[in-house]
Amino acid sequence: MLFTPSSSSDAPPFTPRVAAALLARCTSRVAAAALHARLLRCSRAFFRSPYLSNCLGAAYSRLGAAPYAVALLRAAAKPNIFSHNILLSALVSSGLLEDARGLFDGMPQRDAVTYNAMLSGYVAGALLDEAFHLFCSMNERDVRPTPFTFSIVSSAVGSVRRGQQLHAAAVRHGLAHSDVVVGNALIDMYGRVGLLEYAARVFSCMEQVDVTSWNSVMSVYKDQALTSTVFKCFGTMRSKGFSVDGFTVSIVLSACSDVKDLVKGDQMLALCIKMGFLTNFMVSSAIIDFLCMSDRLSDALQLFREMPTWGSEPCNALISGYARSGLMEEALSLFAVSMRNGIVPNEFSFASVLKWSSCFGLMEQGTQIHCLVCKLGFQNDVIVSTALTDMYCKLGLTKHARKIFDTVGAKDLVLWNTMLLGLLQNGRSKEALVIFKRILKCGIQPDRITLFGALSACGLEGLVSEGMEIITLFKDRYHIMPSLEHYTCVVDMLCCTGMFREAVNYVENKLAKFSAAIFSNILEACIVQGNIGIAELVAEKMVMQKSRLSLPYIVLAQIYGARCKWEKMAGVWRSMENQRAKKVQSCSWLCIKNHIYVFTSEQILHHGKGATYEVLDLLFWDMMNHKYAPSFVEPNNLD
């Protein structure tokens, strides 16, 4: 759109108001620059007041030419608060936060627009502490925040205390219940910090809700694994006449995948077809994920092939589906093909492929993907950093994982938990406890995974009293009640210190139902440490409960045999046969180049054959050279 002087006498005069209207309609930087040039040719008197300078600056900033806006407004005559706000937004858009803060501090007047621009810059730059402090300063200076202000600041909240402070400010300004934007922001915020009850309370107190409100609260319920509540909310939403959107059905489909509810998932699939949602990348990716979770990979692949265009979300879902089915070569191939087809990977693409690369021990591919992450500038993204940290921890490279973890400025709970569990997996329990203490010190709301990691670290270090104090802390301060996995950690902690009797009593007092898995852990620990008395007691308890695990029967039979109690030993064998107790078989896997071989002890001859034995021989001789061979191995007896 180019502007030339009109020769028609009927044309309206070219006034500042007409120029402002034309600038508002500009759709490209070229058009804005052409109109700017015409204004300069007509008369520089147009720029004696800041009105047109502000309009031009706003147009340049809106059209992605923030440096032009900065240059224009810095030279503007008689700038006013609107000029400063537009310039501030342009500086923020250009990433010049220090210059923006300098302008902000020197402004004689500041309104809500001023603060919103600066807050947006801090949040975009992951400077969350600065954003929250600026919001507090805004309240102290009696500048009334807008709904958009709360929407910005809510994304900067990472702890319960700050979330409650923000909620209190929304209540004081009368926006918490009356404004739907603020209410939705509070629901998302409480879901992110793990306060489900608060999120549900905000939703129930809102005077008016919309589809986004329902989507937000269903997303919170799904993240807390309350799948039945998600289905209930979806039914209530439809019964009240709300129309669903792509985000709604993707949440419900994801919930169906989590619990593998094929009936509800197929119903949602039919609804998506009926409403024409299959072209929506978010919905199609949720459908592909559901089909892969329900062992219908061929159907997912057919849906993917029939899509008119490719998107990053469906590609990520199919990559995860391939990898989940053990087809890692196909997953990496699709990742490469999608890039050749012009699909630029996003943070979720990297998270998907890094997760499965680490699970299959593909170090070379993982490091190549890390290089691509740095090349595309995703190294500061918290989702990608979490995936990289997890990958390096699973590969045993904790120094690399720690380096990535330390470079992330705004760490979320998922990243903290990943580092905590990664250190535990590599036997670094002392460092894991340091991470746990830092989580509490930073004011981040821990969750059940954090409690599991802390108890596991205490167990490895033999810190029984500290572990018990942590359980009490989580109950009293964070209202997190221990579950079966946490009780298992406590039992392992007691067993590591030889407190077997206390472990048995703890299980019997805390658990309402008999847990064969926990008693099996106690039994194994007793056998390892040679406590035959407690081992016999635990084995008898498990046999009396008609356990279908073979371990208690074998242990009890051996104990009776050592004491020449043949009748009792025969009775144990009969009980084992009657209960059809089976030995739990585990498997091993070996990666040779691009092929992964999974086998049990009986299947080793059927997988890889010569290549498998060649790699095992190399590993064995490497162990011998480094004196890592177990003491019970007789090298001369090996084939």
How much helical structure, as a percent, in the residues? 55-70%
| Form type | elongated
Q: Reading side by side through the largest sheet, how are the strands ordered?
A: 1-2
What percent strand?
A: under 5%
> How many strand elements?
2
- The helix count comes to 35
By helix and strand content, what is the structural category? mainly alpha
PPR repeats: 80-110, 111-145, 311-345, 412-446
Keywords: Repeat, Transit peptide
InterPro entries: PPR_At4g14850-like_plant, PPR_rpt, TPR-like_helical_dom_sf
Protein name: Tetratricopeptide repeat (TPR)-like superfamily protein
Report on the architecture of this protein.
By secondary structure, the chain is mainly α. Among the domains are: 209-309; 483-578, Serine Threonine Protein Phosphatase 5, Tetratricopeptide repeat; 588-637, no CATH class. The protein contains 35 helices and 2 strands. It has helices at residues 16-25, 29-42, 50-62, 66-74, 81-93, 97-106, 112-124, 128-140, 147-154, 160-172, 180-193, 196-205, 211-223, 227-239, 246-259, 262-275, 281-293, 297-305, 312-324, 328-340, 347-359, 363-376, 382-394, 398-407, 413-425, 429-441, 448-461, 464-476, 484-496, 500-510, 516-529, 532-544, 551-562, 566-578, 610-625, and strands at 588-592, 595-599. A two-stranded antiparallel ribbon has the order 1-2. α4 packs antiparallel against α5 (81-93) and α21 packs parallel to α23. The protein starts with 15 loop residues before the first helix and ends in a 14-residue tail after the last helix. Mean pLDDT is 80; it is low at 1-9 and 629-639. GO terms for molecular function: RNA binding. One of its GO terms (biological process) is RNA modification. This is Tetratricopeptide repeat (TPR)-like superfamily protein. Pfam families: PPR, PPR_2. PPR repeats lie at residues 80-110, 111-145, 311-345, 412-446.
